Amino acid sequence: MTDVDLDTEDRRLIAALQVRPRASWTELASVLGPSAVTLARRWARLSEAGAAWITVAPNLQPGTGALGLGVALVELRVPPGQVLAIAGELSAVPEVATIDLTSGGRELVLTVIAGDEDSLARLLLERLHPLGVVLSVHSHPVTRTYVDGSNWRLPGLGEGERTRLAPHLAPANRARISPLLEAVARELARDGRISATDLAERLELRPRRARDLVAEVIGTRRLRFRTELARRHSGYPLCTWYFLKTPASQRATVASRIAALQQARAVVAMVGQYDLAVDVWTRTLDDVQRLEATIEERMPGVHIADRSLVLRTVKLMGRLLDESGCASGFVPLPAYLKGGEI
Fold first, then answer.
1. pLDDT tens, the chain, 342 aa long
2. What is the largest CA-CA distance in the chain?
3. Cα 235 to Cα 282: distance, rounded to the nearest angstrom
4. What Cα–Cα distance (Å) separates residue 249 from each residue in 22, 61, 259?
5. What one-character-per-residue DSSP string does 11-75 give?
6. DSSP E strand boundaries for 84-124
7. d(CA 57, CA 77)
């Protein structure tokens, strides 16, 4: 990928697309200032370089559907000399949505979205455990997602601008999930701004039918759009996983309070050795330590049992990343629209 530098207008465009990923260039121009043509060219430059991209992921946030989609956080211990090889092998596995290479008590942290509980069990028992060089596998099924990467916002927009961009959400439809709708969701995951014309060509449909299907898929509310950028361009170059133990009676309150922090990219409740896992982006290592102190001082009873600094992310919600964190490929998840009522 071609290296690019992001300026203020690039960041404002990405921030706007985080609020409204499929807004037209004309709609974005009315809020951001530069012309629609200029904005389209900016986005083409950023996306072609892999510095920013738009995808979709299953909507896990209501909490009721996480187990139904076979979601888990998995820690792997592997010999140091095998980390990159194992990460490369796992990158091709559709169920492994995200792969972080980490320091501390585990070499790899995987976010798994297997599609359902049976598929999760098969992945853990038949595909991860038998890997010859893996020293240990610790899996933590996710029971609730309080916040995920789709909520994280890049600074740069004023409150008024965010309000003007905020989409109007119609009531969720009750569309029957079909292979065709899954195929549309998969193409939106490949390119969240795919046009009706391009989608029609990919799926051999009429453009109007493709446009209606996109609206139908979005209307199910089973997907969440994610406008992502390479972390080194975000202003928050450090990523850290925290593993927390909390009193059961306070868990939901603690998770919600942490989820409200600007640094929080993901907060999930799990079954296993830890009660909560928290993924944060920060500017410096000092910020990592200050955040730890804030959590323990303001939330009595919460214990940060362990933490791991992310050395490199090689896959992020199906997007393959190069050494600089830029998008370099795509492996779709096994399913995007499955799960319980939302």
1. 567 889 999 999 999 999 999 999 999 999 999 999 999 999 999 999 999 999 999 988 654 444 568 899 999 999 988 999 999 999 999 999 999 999 988 999 999 999 888 888 998 888 876 666 788 889 999 999 999 988 899 998 999 999 999 887 777 777 788 999 999 999 999 999 999 999 999 999 999 999 999 999 999 888 999 999 999 999 999 999 999 999 988 899 999 999 998 899 999 999 989 999 999 999 999 998 898 888 888 888 899 999 999 999 999 999 999 999 999 999 999 999 875 433
2. 58
3. 8
4. 40, 20, 17
5. HHHHHHHHH-TT--HHHHHHHH-S-HHHHHHHHHHHHHTTSEEEEEEE--TTSTTTGGGTEEEEE
6. 96-102, 108-113
7. 27
Closest among 139, 144, 30, 60 to 340, alpha carbons compared: 60
Report whether 58 contacts 333 (CB < 8 A).
yes
Distance CA 123, CA 139 (A): 11
3-state secondary structure of 189: helix
Residue 66 CA to residue 267 CA, distance in Å, equals 13
Rounded Cα gap, residues 147 and 260, in angstroms: 9
